[in-house]
Design brief:
single chain, 118 residues, mainly alpha, three-stranded antiparallel β-sheet, 4 helices
């Protein structure tokens, strides 16, 4: 890193010697652009899916994605956010067949006293 800093300082001095106005070199860590494409495995991790599950969502065309021919499937972060907003309902009313069954009344797991009555 010191070689890079020395090179930047040398460049700034050379520019000032040529009559350029004051030059300040700012070195920042490389950031990922906000429009960068994410691969399938990374997107699946962000959504809490397995890659195979996210592949099913892609096949059903429920999420935006890009794919060049048969190449890898890619996603933008904003597309993942849109999918989360669209598929995270609150206050869902379930049909009776989808409701959780009540807890068993028996104190012994797996024991059903009605089967032993005569």
């Amino acid at each position: 890193m010191s070689k890079l800093t020395d090179a930047a300082d040398a460049l700034a001095q050379s520019l000032m010697a040529l009559g350029a106005p004051s030059v300040r070199v700012v070195m920042t860590p490389r950031e990922t652009p906000t429009d960068a494409l994410l691969d399938l495995a990374t997107a699946a991790t962000l959504l809490g899916y397995k890659p195979a599950g996210l592949r099913k969502v892609v096949k059903a065309e429920q999420i935006r994605y890009v794919q060049n021919g048969n190449g890898p499937i890619k996603f933008r972060r904003e597309w993942l956010d849109e999918y989360i907003k669209a598929n995270n309902p609150t206050g869902v009313k379930r049909s009776p067949s989808q409701r959780k069954p009540p807890p068993p009344t028996s104190t012994v797991p797996g024991f059903d006293p009605s089967r032993f009555q005569r």
